[in-house]
Design a protein that fits this description.
homodimer; 288 residues; alpha/beta; TIM Barrel; 8-stranded parallel beta barrel; two-stranded antiparallel ribbon; 11 helices; globular; IolE/XylAMocC-like (chains A, B); isomerase activity (chains A, B); Xyl_isomerase-like_TIM-brl (chains A, B); isomerase (chains A, B); Sugar phosphate isomerase/epimerase (chains A, B)
Chain lengths: 288, 288
């Protein structure tokens, strides 16, 4: 938390592709997260819209530029499975704003969390169709501002209430009608590690992998499923194998660590960064 | 809890295919569950090995015959993903015993819960291969005693610690080398409802559906993921659509209600049976 904004960042070559997704240090403001990344030798950050709004867009743009940090993704757009027309329009407008913000801070990709079933609605195929339609409608604006749409397939644990796109294959089915640089996928190990078809789908994805995010699947699963993710190495995911598949698919971008976990959030941010950097060097970087 | 064992069961034609999986009334002994089914007008039961052992096999055989109940399944075999040879042998022997018990009580199918990753082991594909090998080895004994093996694909939420077979398609890949009446699948809505490929895989399954089990996916998910299942109608699953697919696949067997849920377990069994019978009439039977 100490590096002044004007000094050159002290980057570590083994961490060259490591990006701190802000959600991992949820208690930090954007300013604190930027300083934390610099102090820890990181050169990339995944920014969240909530903290971006707190900081103010213009100020954030200046901070990020001064710090010399890449912005790996902006999190997050999406939540466009509503069925009533007014809510559909509101979600579209919100995603347009998110794309504009992503362009302003230089994020290559806007992460799209599709959203769940509307209250009382049990028609999962229809919600999936609405997600695909909403993405189709966003493509022209995304193209205009030069930000890619990254569809994030989500673990089936969230199919009802958060993300109706449940597999990488399904996300690619939605993405493939569009240019590879315009619509891709956000691949998060927590969401996809269990998929028996994962190797084939990662190979199919190729350059459509617009973001690779890592965290672990831990058991017993914490009581709040939204905060159920673990630090790499604390759970059951084989990062070497999955990381190798992602590498072989041609992915050379940043690798974000995104951990939603109450214990991680209760730990001082610089300690979290020290731990995740060590785990990244041991479990992720050698296979990337 | 009142019908004496010797009286003819009072069955209800709208409940003709409804089976009480004993796990739904976890506090009941087998004797109580048999009496509960008769009092509620059910003619089928899914038996658990723990309660069967308590009752004693010979006594249970007599009770079930006297009550005139069909045994839709015996739950459960499986848990054969261990990697060390002694544990593999022990699991095989235990599954042979389970098949013998299933034959003795007249259960058509032994439900197989594959098991999770061994402690500290992150090789999911290898665990899946061991599950397939263990099933291959069980087939001759299953054939000999006339009980089918029902592979239960499990929601990915359990991939690490309970069931490495995560999709219906994957279960069918394991089953298809064998005769359709010898190795099939146990289709539980809780485990498969989210699958984008579900309609196609149910059609592919056809007569390999050896058991159809129903319960709901509720949110927020209860803190203990093993007790996270809801009563049909309390959650997000579209039973009409999935039930129609199962019907169209040719399934005419019993439909088990299997609910692991602390609140359900704290409710008197006869109240649980009254509720599930009403929900079955409303949400399941019309589409079966």
């Amino acid at each position: 938390m100490s590096a002044p904004a004007a000094s050159p960042p002290v980057t570590d070559p083994t961490l060259a592709r490591l990006s701190l997704n802000q959600r991992t240090t949820a208690s930090w403001t954007l300013r604190e997260a930027i300083d934390g990344c610099r102090a820890a030798g990181l050169s990339s950050i995944g920014v969240w819209r909530e903290q971006l709004a707190e900081a103010g867009l213009d100020q954030a743009v200046g901070w990020l530029a001064d710090a010399g940090l890449r912005v790996s993704t902006l999190c997050r757009g999406g939540f466009f499975t509503a069925s009533d027309p007014a809510a559909i329009e509101a979600a579209h407008a919100e995603n347009v704003r998110a794309l504009d913000e992503a362009a302003a801070i230089g994020a290559a990709t806007l992460c799209l969390v599709p959203g769940g079933l509307p209250s009382g609605d049990r028609d999962l195929p229809a919600a999936r169709r609405r997600a695909a339609e909403a993405i189709e409608r966003l493509v022209p604006h995304a193209r205009r501002v030069g930000v890619s749409l990254g569809i994030e397939p989500m673990n089936p644990i969230y199919a009802a209430d958060r993300g109706v796109v449940s597999t990488l294959g399904q996300a690619l089915d939605i993405a493939e009608p569009y240019a590879v640089e315009e619509v891709g996928v956000v691949l998060d190990t927590f969401h996809v590690w269990w998929d028996p078809d994962l190797e084939a789908q990662i190979a199919r994805a190729g350059r459509r992998i617009h973001s690779y995010q890592v965290c672990d699947w831990i058991t017993p699963l914490p009581a709040d499923t939204l905060l159920a993710r673990g630090m790499m190495g604390d759970g059951h995911i084989d990062f070497a194998t999955i990381g190798g598949w992602v590498r072989d698919a041609g992915y050379t971008g940043d690798i974000e660590v995104e951990i939603f976990n109450a214990d991680v959030w209760a730990t001082p941010g610089d300690e979290v960064l020290a731990t995740l950097s060590a785990r990244y060097r041991e479990l992720i970087q050698p296979y990337a």
